[in-house]
Design brief:
The chain has 129 residues and is mainly beta. Helix content is 3%, strand content 45%. The protein has one domain: Sandwich (Jelly Rolls), CATH 2.60.120. The protein has 1 helix and 10 strands; from the N terminus they run αββββββββββ.
Length: 129
């Protein structure tokens, strides 16, 4: 059994920041669960161009608001507390923070190692152990 407290993640090497996001990696590949699990904070007004070519991601909003735009179709979907979106086709997208910071709970498959960084097209490369 694993017990993970967000207070233990904040300020550790499992809290990773980039322009317009903070990711608190609660479970990583090394934890052996077959997926990684993160709390991600998107500040109000942020705009992120992302494309997880090598990962599937499910995201559940537990606070705040924003939107996600499907780059292939131009469709925009509102995100708020209680909304889940799943990037089940490696969807290129634009994630926008709304009027308040969004707090998102995310699962990645395959799991991330924690050493990934977004490349120029917004994706994570696969990092092997």
């Amino acid at each position: 059994m694993k017990i993970v407290k967000i207070d233990d993640i904040i300020g550790s090497d499992r809290e990773v920041e980039g322009p317009g996001w903070v990711s608190r990696r609660m479970l990583l590949k090394s934890d052996g669960m077959g997926f990684s699990f993160h709390e991600t904070i998107i500040p109000a007004g942020a705009e992120l161009h992302l494309w997880y070519k090598n990962h599937l991601e499910a995201v559940y909003c537990v606070a705040g608001n924003g939107s996600i735009e499907d780059k292939a179709t131009g469709e925009v979907h509102e995100i708020r507390d209680g909304v889940l979106y799943a990037l089940d086709n490696h969807d290129a997208h634009i994630l926008r923070g709304g009027t308040e910071d969004m707090r998102l709970i995310c699962a990645f498959n395959p799991p991330v190692t924690g050493r990934e960084t977004h490349d120029e097209d917004g994706s994570y490369n696969l990092v092997e152990d």
